[in-house]
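Translate sequence into structure tokens.
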Amino acid sequence: MKSSTMYQQVILASSSQARIEYLENAKVDFKVRPHKINESSFKKKKGTFKKIVEELAEMKARSINKNKNETIIGSDQILVCEKKIIDKPRTIQEAKQNLIFLRNKKHKLISSIVVINMENIIFKETKEAIIKMKNISDSNIELYLSKNKQTALSCVGSYKIEENNKYNFLDVIKGDTETIIGFPASEFIERLKK
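Result follows.
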């Protein structure tokens, strides 16, 4: 798809495989240029969860080198359970602790994208999903982690919704797939294609 007529070159300020695949599946012509933001330190700041995720998405978009012919997509997602932000784990042990903490509880995923062009925000979308993790056993958690180390270390909840068909450990209470994967971009893509 030629998006250059309206928005010039689209740049994704992320190295997230899920977001890259989302844009590829939507037939968007884009390039990847990972952001330069330290997410974990920013997430310790005060503010509403919605404000934190929106500010991070915008900061990521603004953090990369750009020129006037580029439209930058910044995105972020946070997972909140019992009023606490659960961050991406640094180790498999932390991933296990995340999954044990989430077990048999509802949690909220808040996802945001901010699109900028010439320093101006031209599109912004923030959506929420509610997921319940089933009461999975310690042995099932360990089995999942042994087969999905990369996933566990790259996702805020240490899981991917795409793997739920295989493992059946999540119930989606509210929300669509794009929100759950952390990339509510369908409306922007529609505008891009027009």
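Note: The beta strands are 9-12, 30-32, 70-81, 84-86, 106-117, 120-133, 170-174.
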